[in-house]
Amino acid sequence: MTGLILKDFFTLKKTLIYMVVVILLFNGIYTAAGNSHFSDFFISVMVVSILISTMSYDEYYHWDRYAAILPVSRRQIVGAKYITAFLLFAAGSLLSLALTVGITFFQGRRYSLEDLVIFAWSILVGMIGAAVVLPCYYRFGVQKSRFLMLAFYGIPSVLLVLGLRFIPGFTEKASRLEVTPEGFLLGGILLTAVALVVSFLTSVRVLEKKELK
Fold first, then answer.
1. Neighbours of 121 (CB within 10 A)
2. CB–CB of 138/118 below 8 Å?
3. Which of 89, 100, 145, 149 would bridge with 137, disulfide CB 3.0–4.6 Å?
């Protein structure tokens, strides 16, 4: 299965360089401007986009036909893709966090627990997005997965904007919710874990029923 993971990273060699450059650029700009949270969520969107790129390469070069003759199970094929997604999120988040914390301390500001929770949630949201997109890819292909990703990020954003615009006191009501940062983070981790487990089992089931030829 290690070879399946390395295949994705060798395919994305140039894209990963682009990812590092974009992380450095956007994190530097927005953290220096005192608004690092935008870049946090941008990292999640970008990582999911890069993950979809690996799917696009697989589909374009008919990877499924080659995978059908390999001495690996469908569960291993799916598992490799999920591990690739996890490694991409880990690399992107560590680079982003290191840069953000470094610039924050350089400016004499304090990186608070609330900042860390928001950063962690931005990564968790991205992982939930991957959990939604991956089964769709195995069932419907890359193009519909892209549309699903846009809907996953776009619809909540639109609802948030509408809430801020048309619901009186929306911000005040949200701020009065009695949830500790630790509880909020724990809830996000549990939600993400459940989403990934369900997503993985669904993807395996879909691929096992799919004829690779």
1. 21
2. no
3. 145
> Of 123, 131, 38, 57, which Cα lies nearest the Cα of 89?
123
CB-based contact 46:39 (threshold 8 Å): no
Closest alpha carbon to 184 in 114, 129, 134, 131: 114
For residue 35, give the 3-state DSSP assignment.
coil
Handedness of CA 131, 195, 198, 1 (dihedral sign): positive
Tell me how far apart the alpha carbons of residues 157 and 148 are, in angstroms, rounded to a whole number: 14
**pLDDT at 153 > cutoff 50:** yes
Give the three-class secondary structure for 81.
helix
pTM of the model: 0.82
Q: Which residue has 């994190």 as its token pair?
A: 27
Q: Which of 150, 145, 147 is nearest to 133 (CA)?
A: 145
User: When comparing pLDDT for 6 and 161, which is higher?
Assistant: 6
Q: Is 3 exposed, middle or buried (0-12, 13-18, 19+ CB in 10 A)?
A: exposed
pLDDT at 39 over 80: no
